[in-house]
Amino acid sequence: MEAHYIDAVLKGNANAFGYFIRTYQNQAFSLAVSLVKREADAKDVVQDSFIAAYSSLGNFRKDAKFSTWFYRIVVNTALQFLKRQKRRSEVVSDYAITDDEKTAVNSALAQLRQEDLKRLVVTVLKKIPPKEAMVLQLYYIDDQNIAEIMEITAFSNSHVKVLLHRGRTAFYKHMESEDIKKPY
Amino acid sequence: MDEKDDLKEILNGIDQLHTPVDLEGAILQKIAEEERIKAQIARYRTNGLRALWASLVLTVILAVLFSLPNSIQTAEYAIMTYASVGVTLLVLFVQLEMGRTNGLNHLKTNGL
Lengths: 184, 112
Description:
The structure holds 2 protein chains of 2 kinds.
Chain A: H1 2-10, H2 18-36, H3 39-55, H4 66-84, H5 99-110, H6 114-127, H7 130-141, H8 146-153, H9 157-177
Helix pairs in contact in A: 2-3, 2-4, 2-7, 3-4, 4-8, 7-9
Chain B: H1 2-11, H2 24-66, H3 74-98, H4 102-110
Helix pairs in contact in B: 2-3
């Protein structure tokens, strides 16, 4: 299916690229927001990523997964954006969280309505440093496994695991400071 | 890895965190614009190459004209001089016109 649209684009039918935009724009947008935080900036990142993907579609290996290849472009574009903005990745304090605290947060989250949970997760992800938030987004929301995250981010296995651990701990710590019961 | 699984279970139902966006029109428009700019650059490049070749040919003609022996008659010498000046101006014109020089366009639009 995707190969058909790729061929059409490579033959000069730019409108066939609309298929990829419609299919991947929302996930790409969420991924970009996790890194750049502001939605307007994330839209710019997604737009630039699609244009970069269009220009380098000729280099795409058809045996690879388009989504992985494209999300890597999104991640690189967002990281370049952060670099241009001189927004350094904040150093995460080494939070410590006990099992009891985690259980308390988990059970409070489990009782939230889906929409409230969504809003709360968005709020908390904005407070977590870019790379940690990106890995959380890919792992928990986009349902990518560690190997896929490694491919998308070009980070090593241990780096992804460290980011995931730090992100998760930061997520719980920020959740604790949120008033989970209030309607979001 | 219990903590990870708990969170995964809780966040499992969320497939889309943000309100859906529709960037298709804007992106396709930008792509079309980039394609237009690329085509324009390709056209300028072709024109530039043509100008380069034309200049090369005219410069060779100039070289031939200037290398003629100066023992020839005065009238022929005058013709040769004027022809050389004419060809030089032509070379300049070709370069400016095909390079779409801003200054020249400005003069053409607003007059001398």
